[in-house]
Every structure is written in structure tokens, then in C-alpha cells.
Amino acid sequence: MNFKTTLALSAFTLVIASCESHNSGENISQTTLSTSSVVSKYDVNLHPVTKTVCDPFNGTSSTTVQQGIQATLYYLSSGDTPLHNVEAYYSSAHQSTQSLFFTDMNVPTRLFDAGFSTQSGGVLDDDSGNKLIEYFALKFQTNLQLGPNDPEGDYELALLSDDGTILKAQLDPSSSTLTTIINNDGDHPTQMGCATQTIHMTKSTSMPITVEYYQGPRYEIANVLIWRQATVAGKDASCGVNGNSTYFDPNNNSQPQAAYNGLLSRGWAPLTANNFMIPASEVYNPCVTGTNPVITNFAVEELSSFSWTTDILSTSQLMFTNVATGAVTLTTADNSMVLSHQVAITGLSPASTYSVQAVSVSADLGKTLSDPIMITTP
């Protein structure tokens, strides 16, 4: 996670005297009263904290705004018929509105029961309110490149996954066509799926790839992208070999086993954060480690106006959670950077109680959510 909750104010309940809008739905908007000529380099509305999941498998944060992997989540709800290949998830499952960002693709076989923690402090649930730990798919998108210590040449790729994975690569820079070079699809314990052909990498190569992955029944999960220099692909003795504890021990902190150590001895290695750059369409990685503003003096001024201060220049937003319905609304920032924040709100539902938090994002994308204030509209 790259935000912190600032212990600035104890929660209390306040009744707002009036509200400009009495819509039955959540249609909350803000007017920023404290503006500045200093504007954030990044549009913080592109990746709101309420719809962003950072390194959900407890990886490390990215070090630059261009580094990383973006992923889209698809999932089944309770009662849905289980699916057994990744394309079925993309065509039939529910697509989440959340955007997931990863630093790398190195999840050795482990137990997965904690779920996905969101940037705003919650956990992703399915449509029935159940914590999402099985029957979901991820579509990873990134650009593959050599790290500073990786030599130029031909490489073969492989995926150690539980359950199915498919890797597609844009082998021809002049064409947008993606070619399947690894097909490790289907229900199985951690299995090594090997590429059918090598890829050529130079220091200037930036190769778009897509990794399609799904997790079937709980509880083990694995997805490790590995490579080595090679003149031919798919000839390693472990290609197609699988087993819950063959490569890693999920019951012992993913301890590497003899089969995985054998891969390392034969020149295989997991790709690192230096090998992944986010797609250009994402503009920036919101999960980069930044300087978190310190929020103080968060308060309701009068009517529906909120104010707070930060120790460094940062943006101004408010996050409202309707206590009765659980609906979460994040207002739209104007991206101006200030120390003294004042925001007026319209569109709150009548006779409703909200938990309200201030949200500020610094110039280098550090994020802070305040402690909540409880308010009730007339």
C-alpha cells in the first residue's frame, strides 16, 4: 500500500443544516473553494483510490510512474457455474471496475485467503458480498524490456501457474497483432507452461505482452513469469510438469523446492520490476511510492463545506460512504495543489448518514486518507 491513514481527528456525528440536492441516488459533486496556480502533473481522477488495487499479492511498490503491470479483474459471484479456461472468464464473468497494478509477476505457490486489499483500505468482494479468493481471472498488460543488467539476445519464456495462463506477445513492432507463445490454460496445480518460440530482445525493445490468468477453486495460487537466454524454446525437462508442492511449498512460506532450484541452475530466473513498463494508455502508475501528505484539522465548516490542511502541496477530494447502503462516492478533483483545503458538496441524499474522509494526493503521488467524520443529512 502506498497511502497512510492520518490520525488527525476522532470520529464524531454532525447533522448538516441543509443540503442543496435531495436525489435518491448518490450524485455527489464538489466545488473546490481553495484553488492554486500550482497544478498536479498527474490527473488524479484517472486512477481514483476507490477503484485502485496496488500490488494485491503483497509485492513491493513500483519505483517510477512508468514502471509496472496493469491488470483487469474478472470474477464469478456465488452461485455462478465454475469456468475452466481463461477466455471463458473474459466472455462470461463479471468485469470489476477496479484497476489492479503490479510491480512484477512473481507469485510463487502460496495460500490465498486474505483477498485483494484496495487502496482506500477495503477488501474486494464479489456481487454477493463475499471476499474474493477463488474463481476469478486477471488480464495483465505491460511492455516487456531488458533490465540494466540483462544482455541482449534471444530469450525463452515460461509461466509457473495455478491455474491456467496464456501469454501473448507483439512479436512484430510494425503490427498490433498479439501472438500466443505460451498456452498453459486449464485447471491444474502449479504447472510449467513453456513458450513455443523465442523472443529477441535488445536494449531498445519494448514489447507489449498480455498474460491471461485465472484462479479456480481455493486455496493455492501461483503465477511466476520466468525466462532465460536460449536459441530454441520449450525443451526444458520441466515443461508441462506440475504439482502443488513441486516448485514451491505453499504450506511453508512458498519455500523453493528442488524442481525450482533446478530451473535456476539451468539459467532460468524470474523477471524483475525493471522488465515491466505500464502500457502507454495508462499514462502513469498510481501505485508508485510517493510522499504521503499529513492531513490535519479535518472538519465541517458550515452547511456542507469541509476543510483540512496538509503539510505539503496536494490535491483535494472527499470520499463519502453511505452507512446504510455501503455505496462509496469519491468526488472529482480539480488537480490544484494547496496546503489549505476547502471543498463544498452538493448531491447528498436526504435523511442519510455518511462516513466522510478527506483524500489528498501529493505531487509525487503519495496518498493520504483522513480519519472519518460521521454526518447525517436532514
Task: Walk me through the structure.
It is built from two helices and 27 strands. With 378 residues, the chain is mostly beta strands. It folds into two domains: 3-46 and 290-376, Immunoglobulins (Immunoglobulin-like); 49-282, Sandwich (Jelly Rolls), CATH 2.60.120. It has helices at residues 86-92, 258-265; strands at 3-6, 13-15, 29-32, 52-54, 69-75, 94-102, 106-111, 136-144, 153-162, 165-169, 179-184, 191-194, 199-201, 207-215, 220-229, 248-249, 255-256, 269-270, 276-277, 295-300, 305-314, 317-322, 328-330, 338-346, 353-361, 367-370, 373-376. β25 and β26 form a beta hairpin. The two termini are 36 Å apart. The strands form five sheets. Strands 4, 5, 6, 8, 10, 11, 14 and 19 form an eight-stranded mixed beta sheet that branches.
Short recap of the structure:
This protein has 378 residues and is mostly beta strands.
Annotate the secondary structure layout.
Elements lengths: L2 E4 L6 E3 L13 E4 L19 E3 L14 E7 L10 H7 L1 E9 L3 E6 L24 E9 L8 E10 L2 E5 L9 E6 L6 E4 L4 E3 L5 E9 L4 E10 L18 E2 L5 E2 L1 H8 L3 E2 L5 E2 L17 E6 L4 E10 L2 E6 L5 E3 L7 E9 L6 E9 L5 E4 L2 E4 L2
Parallel strand pairs: 1-26, 2-27, 4-6
Antiparallel strand pairs: 3-24, 5-6, 5-8, 7-15, 8-14, 8-19, 9-12, 9-13, 9-15, 10-11, 10-14, 15-18, 16-17, 20-21, 21-24, 22-23, 22-25, 25-26, 25-27
